[in-house]
Write a structure and sequence with these properties.
There is one protein chain. The protein has 4 domains: about 5-260, 2-enoyl-CoA Hydratase, Chain A, domain 1 (Alpha-Beta Complex), CATH 3.90.226; about 300-475, NAD(P)-binding Rossmann-like Domain (Rossmann fold); about 515-585, N-(1-d-carboxylethyl)-l-norvaline Dehydrogenase, domain 2, CATH 1.10.1040; about 595-690, Orthogonal Bundle (N-(1-d-carboxylethyl)-l-norvaline Dehydrogenase, domain 2), CATH 1.10.1040. Helices cover about 50% and strands about 10% of the residues. Strand 13 (about 375-380), helix 16 (about 385-400) and strand 14 (about 405-410) form a beta-alpha-beta unit. Helix 4 (about 135-145) packs across helix 10. The longest helix has 21 residues, at about 595-615. It is globular and about 90 Å long. Bound molecules: (S)-3-Hydroxyhexanoyl-CoA (3H9). (S)-3-Hydroxyhexanoyl-CoA binds near residues 23, 25, 61 and 133. Keywords: Fatty acid metabolism, Isomerase, Lipid degradation, Lipid metabolism, Lyase, Multifunctional enzyme, NAD, Oxidoreductase, Peroxisome. It catalyses: a (3S)-3-hydroxyacyl-CoA + NAD(+) = a 3-oxoacyl-CoA + NADH + H(+). In the N-terminal section; belongs to the enoyl-CoA hydratase/isomerase family.
């Protein structure tokens, strides 16, 4: 018998336990273990009913993703599932933790399912660019009906045990998975319940068979946000087979769809992103086994947009927050915004009706920095100038308790200089959240020169606890994300002087898959901030300056690079802007030329990659995949393109280096010269992925 699974017998109940940490993924060994042990239970004449359960923190979390792309090893999952489904003795899945992907498919092949109350059940394959490949698209619609099945399979989000119970996906909610399932199993035998095989039960498909719009409407609602992605549409087709075709035929077509996606570039990129995200949580250069500090309470300084959003993220995760302002009025305003925000989410059904009150109760609003005294982690989110930050940190040093981690949410300032204001630079680091902070998943954790390893571990683990994706970066102007973005911004602006229009540049960027182009983003952020800072520094940017002089500050004034209809955020191209650009160029004696979309794409993306190469060479990011994580979760880089560094590898570094050198010459811009690391890799025919772990950030 296999080591990862075993069979125990409690008189008539055979208990098959899978134990393959960390998440009981369906590796070849686990598949074999299930098959052998279920067969042994079937063969044992004493056993009348079989319970399938898992050891450790979770039920099976899916196929073993690390096996994808390698030659398949027997037994195939579908063969394991048909052995379960065809068992002459009832098989009951006992679910705790998460039953995901292939894990839920195993459970769906069982005759009955029970789960603990905090269990989650889902088919998240689309998030890896796949569709369920072991009957999930055929059995789940038969278990819960096509509408919920579409939501779970095409949307990829799991449901909780209560919803699963209501929908008929599980029979009972139990206390302990194995003991609860065993009691349920005895009932099945005592009551002589039939072997429920989902494959043979079309009752929940009847309505959609009669009126296919039930299905197509559900698909249309879910795929609204699937722009550019292949998997959700292929997954929807597969659910359609459940409605239109006999089970075996549907299963065959599902398998074909799965295999096609498995070799697709999109799925490869999405699987890369899955592991990149987990890799980013492993901090380069920190001694193994370093433990984080305990964080029971967080203090956040500043109840503005950033501070409020950060506070919400902590309260969402059940962590108490002391929210500190300089005056009652600002505090009240900040608290009001949070409350409204949660109430709006509750009204949409996004969180339970009592959640806003519960979360507000976790936030203790206070005036005065002395109130940081009970906090284990302090996050400063005040005005973005060095003088203000220094003053705050000087005071924090006075009031914060010994050992508290002191973080700044600065988006570009030097953390070393901030840390130097305290007598405890080992406790100081950056936690750079992205706006809106309660929504965006990225948190750049900035490691300063003297940051202690355990302070760093604390920041990374607390970020994960509040459902953020942390990426550790080093100190430099703009850290990883904004430093790369600045290069894109610079080229975007230059393109306007050469002949492109804002809408042309933005269209290329959004067609690539980014949620917004640089000019629509400028309008959203407000153009006046940059204008003022240019004036302070005596710098000119004639087109942007002319827009601001004409009162076009972006969305807030209803016009910027675009015009906006009242109450709408949709950017509309504005002939007045084209005129303004023409006039500005005429004044400067410049002529517009036709700029191709190809050039725009190259000049938007390649300079960022070039900057990424510099960031790696300087050790600001430890791994190319960390840079990808920053872009995926902080800037909406399309997941099916894996991240800028991954994408660069797929384009070819030699091509990118050549094009950069070409544009450097053509547009007389030395900043576009290929970075030494990019050039070296290009010359050697290598990729970013080939880099061994770089210098620790
Ligand atoms: C599928 O099932 C296809 C089938 O339909 C068809 C087959 C024919 N495989 O996330 P964590 C590792 S597709 C391999 O940090 P958490 C992970 O890399 C699959 N490894 O923990 C990490 O390793 P390390 C559908 C996996 O508690 C460690 O486990 N299923 C897998 O925050 C801990 O992970 C999914 O998409 C895997 N399937 O979250 C579920 N899963 O420590 C994917 C995890 O070395 N998994 N690992 O970095 C998840 O969503 C989360 O891992 C889970 C736990 C919620 C389970």
């Amino acid at each position: 018998m296999s080591e990862v699974a075993k069979l125990d017998r409690h008189d008539i109940v055979g208990i098959v336990t899978i134990d393959s940490p960390p998440v009981n993924a369906l590796s070849a060994a686990v598949r074999g273990g299930i098959l052998d042990n279920v067969k042994a239970a079937i063969a044992d004449p004493e056993i009348k009913v079989i319970v399938l359960t898992c050891g450790g923190r979770t039920f099976i979390a899916g196929a073993d993703i690390t096996e994808f792309g390698k030659p398949p090893k027997p037994p195939a999952l579908n063969d394991v599932l048909s052995t379960i489904e065809n068992s002459p003795k009832p098989v009951i899945a006992a679910i705790h933790g998460t039953a995901l992907g292939g894990g839920l498919e195993v459970a769906l092949a069982c005759h009955y399912r029970v789960a603990t109350k905090d269990a989650k059940l889902g088919l998240p394959e689309v998030k890896l660019g796949l569709l369920p490949g072991a009957g999930g698209t055929q059995r789940l619609p038969r278990a819960v009906g096509p509408e919920l099945a579409v939501k779970m399979i095409v949307g990829g989000d799991p449901i909780g045990a209560a919803e699963a119970h209501k929908a008929g996906l599980i029979e009972e909610i139990v206390e302990g998975p194995a003991s609860g399932a065993e009691a349920f199993a005895r009932k099945v035998v005592a009551e002589n319940r039939p072997l429920r095989k989902l494959r043979d039960d079309d009752s929940k498909l009847a309505a959609a068979k009669a009126d296919r719009s039930i299905f197509t409407n559900a698909v249309a609602a879910i795929t609204k946000k699937s722009r550019g992605l292949e998997a959700p549409f292929a997954a929807a087709d597969a659910v359609g087979y459940a409605i239109d075709l006999p089970f075996d035929e549907g299963l065959k077509r599902e398998r074909e769809g799965f295999l096609k996606l498995l070799t697709s570039d999109q799925s490869k990129a999405q699987r890369y992103a899955f592991f990149a995200e987990r890799e980013a949580a492993k901090i380069a250069g920190v001694p193994e086994g370093t433990k984080g500090r305990k964080v029971d309470r967080v203090a956040i300084i500043g109840a503005g947009t950033m501070g409020g959003g950060i506070a919400m993220s902590f309260a969402n995760a059940g962590i108490p927050v002391t929210l500190i302002e300089t005056a009652e009025e600002q505090l009240k305003r900040g608290m009001g915004v949070m409350q409204k925000n949660w109430e709006a989410t509750a009204a949409r059904g996004g969180i339970p009706a009592d959640a806003p009150a519960k979360r507000m109760a976790l936030i203790d609003g206070k005036v005065g920095l002395e109130h940081v005294k009970d906090a284990d982690l302090v996050i400063e989110a005040v005005f973005e100038t060095m003088a203000v930050k220094k003053e705050v940190f000087g005071k924090l040093d006075q009031y914060a308790k010994p050992g508290a981690v002191l973080a700044s949410n600065t988006s570009y300032l030097n953390i070393d200089a901030i840390a130097a204001e305290t007598s405890r630079p080992q406790d100081v680091l950056g936690m750079h959240f992205f706006s809106p902070a309660n929504v965006m998943k990225l948190c750049e954790i900035v490691r300063a020169e003297k940051t202690a390893p355990d302070a760093l571990v604390t920041a990374v683990s607390i970020a994960r606890k509040i459902a953020k994706v942390p990426a550790v970066v080093g100190v430099c102007d703009g850290f990883v994300g904004n430093r790369m973005l600045a290069q894109r911004g610079k080229q975007a602006e230059k393109l306007l002087f050469e002949g492109a229009l804002p809408q042309q540049v933005d269209a290329v960027v959004t067609k690539f898959g980014m949620p917004m182009g640089p000019f629509a983003m400028g309008d959203l952020a407000g153009l006046d901030i940059g204008w003022r800072s240019r004036k302070d520094r005596g710098i000119k940017s004639e087109i942007a300056d002319a827009l601001c002089e004409a009162g076009r500050f972006g969305q807030k004034t209803g016009k910027g690079y675009y015009k906006y209809e009242a109450g709408s955020r949709a950017p509309l191209p504005d002939p007045d802007v084209e005129k303004l650009i023409d006039e500005t160029l005429a004044k400067l004696g410049l002529k517009r030329r036709a700029v191709s979309d190809e050039e725009i794409l190259e000049r938007m993306m390649y300079p960022m990659i070039n900057e990424g190469a510099k960031i790696l060479a300087e050790g600001i990011a430890a791994r190319p995949s960390d840079i990808d994580v920053v872009w995926l979760y902080g800037y909406g880089w399309p997941i099916y393109r894996g991240g800028p560094m991954y994408w660069a590898d797929s384009v070819g570094l030699k091509h990118i280096a050549e094009r950069l050198a070409f544009y450097a010459k053509e547009t007389n811009d030395p900043s576009l010269e290929p970075a030494p690391l990019l050039k070296k890799l290009a010359d050697e025919g290598k990729t970013f992925a080939s880099l061994a772990q770089g210098k620790a950030a």
